[in-house]
Amino acid sequence: MGVLFVLLILVSGFLVCHYHPQYFFKLHRYEGQYLYLQAAYLGILCLISAAIFHFLLINLSAIAVFEGTRTLGIDYVDLLARYLPDSLGLTEGDKKRYVLLGVIALTTLLMPLLISKWVYWRLKHYLQLDSDEEVDIVIMSELFSDSPLDQLLFSAMINDRNLMLVLDDRKVYVGRVATMGEPNENEGADQEISFLPFVSGYRDKDTLQVMFTTDYKKVGDNLPLVIRQESIVSAREFDFSVYDTFQETGRPSAGLATT
Predict the structure, then answer these.
(1) Are the C-beta atoms of residues 136 and 123 closer than 8 Å to each other?
(2) Of the four listed, 20, 34, 67, 86, which is most buried by Cβ atoms within 10 Å?
(3) What angle do CA 197, 199, 205 make, to 5 degrees?
(4) pTM of the predicted model over 0.70
């Protein structure tokens, strides 16, 4: 019985990490024993919440509404205990005890989903948002604040701003971030990006001047380019009007000096 409750605590705790948005986007940061401790902590909270819920419900069902035998609720533990077969050899007290443990265990497993629904509802109401996806974006923006690169990429994606990316192979792309990778149990949302390039080129190894060689607008619709963030050496916002003005000053038409 003890082993089953340990598994119940760990499973319910992991479900909280999986469904709760504020824990899910951080799940890849938990490793080894820390993940078990986090799951155990959240699972214990679910178990305590489920036990308190049924304690209050059982006591509420015993409150008399009028003088006599009528009560406010139904003694569901006693009702369910009657369906246990006598072939199990259990006394009436044991039947009620096992039924109570069973409903508490079932409620513990349902707690993560209920908590997740409540968190999404509370954040949408507090932040005045319309969908769960918008809540995810707000939470992700808070997580990305600890990395300047993540914050720049995410902000550019949300606000449709142009970026110039310089990769470790000296390739240069100017365009927009289409999407960022979905987080999972092993990796965060900052591993890869889908990038829509407008122009591309390279950075001269001697002068460090950016030379643009390909204009994707002239060849039709842009195809997304998947780039791993670890390959990005530098990133900055890019303004085509500033670039065009800079070209008119007499600089070489094929390049743009950058610092």
Answers:
(1) no
(2) 20
(3) 110
(4) no
